């Protein structure tokens, strides 16, 4: 049946994207721990289903804003993983020329308007992007990813009200991995949570199991369709779990090991793998997809280590046109 | 050439830019009602609610939405109402707008204007009277312009709108109703080019923004012929013109409304000393505010103000050394 095979193909594509994100981040964490990738990375391992389930419903012209944990969003939106790996290594050819690193991953060619080192900062940016889309009469929407920690920042309240007020084409995606950095978010958050806060501002909210990519995909498809039809902003509260610590150096000793282990049993990739096998997709085909993803990212990492450092002039470029800095004497 | 107020010159310039470019739009509080100084009067009627957008009192999102809209190819004019309220949107200005082009390796630009009416405005007290230019000139990525005349208010606003850099436009609250001659066809002004308001060999006087007419009057009252420069933009600023004049006069006075300590006058003086050497000046002085908040009561506020009489005294002091 053509419909079923299309659906299977779509699910295989989502599995491939999730596997690529996981492989990318495993290489990134390993490179960081080996001292090859400078700075820190914030891995989203375990959360891939949210990025992929949402972005499976976006078009190239659609924009996304992201967080400090943004590799998955970028890859799911179609960013060049090789250029991202170069960026994480601070090398020439990185998607930001080596000037942004992991926390500022961006690929404007696919509408990925940037990861952000400030919690919640993408929310106002997404609102303005949607206003520009409307002013230019573009056929596009904006998906705005942020974490559960962001709901305690002022721009969250401002942005929900703003988007609802102007009925902007924005899908707000609260990627709720349970932790605001090292602190369990429920321990520092009063009231009924992200969805209740969004609805208080007039943004309809849907809660979904973020560790089930098919559930995320289904919910996002519905919300995106409403937004494209002019229904105004929508809110998706996707509950998931961050397998790693806040950064690649955080052992996450503040939470019970059993809790983290239980999250691995709910693995979004494992669940889709099982669903595909139940639908008759050969285990060997799935294994090949995962092996290809690992080989691709290992190759990107090796290429990054072999790549040149940026020309030092890059440190002084792209600051501003008027009053640009001069090379030091 | 026509005589008009600072607010009317700025209003007219924005209207002309919005007619020229359909991607120019403005967002901020009370814009449909004309803005609190009348600098948006009538624009909502001409351009509609999609381009003159009255917003909630949500400074972070006014600023941050301006950035998002710039990254998607429009040219927003971001109205902060008064400069003090920018402090509620400092992350969006300093860590987002000023840095996006750089940290994303040139993939996007924040081609937008942030209008910040700043400084003392009769008895507005400590939270509505601040001059923040030194905070802003310190931030790589920002252009900082500070008009002191109606003609420059129009020329710098046009330049700011057309600039591909983010431009902070510091509009002096005290001068909104001040009148001046404005050309019928105002051209965008280049950033970093000072206006020489007076000529003379006794000293080099540097100022900007609300202090421009005060300094011009004070120098006249002193009866001493000086070079007077209205910088018009603070980053970039016209170091060449100031250094050349100071080399000739050997005396430098910088006057600004902001607190003297760590004010932009310190940067001007430092750069002149670096250019001329430690023995290059016979006299150097900064005239600014004491390191105190601005008080409410009229006589107390006046004690903080730069007046023509204080400028004249400073000019005499500097010229006599």
From TrEMBL, chain A:
<dbReference type="InterPro" id="IPR050642">
    <property type="entry name" value="PDH_E1_Alpha_Subunit"/>
</dbReference>
<keyword id="KW-0560">Oxidoreductase</keyword>
<protein>
    <submittedName>
        <fullName>Thiamine pyrophosphate-dependent dehydrogenase E1 component subunit alpha</fullName>
    </submittedName>
</protein>
<dbReference type="InterPro" id="IPR029061">
    <property type="entry name" value="THDP-binding"/>
</dbReference>
<keyword id="KW-0786">Thiamine pyrophosphate</keyword>
<dbReference type="InterPro" id="IPR001017">
    <property type="entry name" value="DH_E1"/>
</dbReference>
<feature type="domain" description="Dehydrogenase E1 component">
    <location>
        <begin position="17"/>
        <end position="298"/>
    </location>
</feature>
<dbReference type="Pfam" id="PF00676">
    <property type="entry name" value="E1_dh"/>
</dbReference>
<dbReference type="GO" id="GO:0006086">
    <property type="term" value="P:pyruvate decarboxylation to acetyl-CoA"/>
</dbReference>
<dbReference type="GO" id="GO:0004739">
    <property type="term" value="F:pyruvate dehydrogenase (acetyl-transferring) activity"/>
</dbReference>
<comment type="function">
    <text>The pyruvate dehydrogenase complex catalyzes the overall conversion of pyruvate to acetyl-CoA and CO(2). It contains multiple copies of three enzymatic components: pyruvate dehydrogenase (E1), dihydrolipoamide acetyltransferase (E2) and lipoamide dehydrogenase (E3).</text>
</comment>
Automatic annotation (TrEMBL), chain B:
<keyword id="KW-0560">Oxidoreductase</keyword>
<dbReference type="Pfam" id="PF02779">
    <property type="entry name" value="Transket_pyr"/>
</dbReference>
<dbReference type="GO" id="GO:0016491">
    <property type="term" value="F:oxidoreductase activity"/>
</dbReference>
<dbReference type="InterPro" id="IPR033248">
    <property type="entry name" value="Transketolase_C"/>
</dbReference>
<dbReference type="InterPro" id="IPR029061">
    <property type="entry name" value="THDP-binding"/>
</dbReference>
<dbReference type="InterPro" id="IPR009014">
    <property type="entry name" value="Transketo_C/PFOR_II"/>
</dbReference>
<dbReference type="InterPro" id="IPR005475">
    <property type="entry name" value="Transketolase-like_Pyr-bd"/>
</dbReference>
<dbReference type="Pfam" id="PF02780">
    <property type="entry name" value="Transketolase_C"/>
</dbReference>
<keyword id="KW-0786">Thiamine pyrophosphate</keyword>
<protein>
    <submittedName>
        <fullName>Alpha-ketoacid dehydrogenase subunit beta</fullName>
    </submittedName>
</protein>
<feature type="domain" description="Transketolase-like pyrimidine-binding">
    <location>
        <begin position="4"/>
        <end position="177"/>
    </location>
</feature>
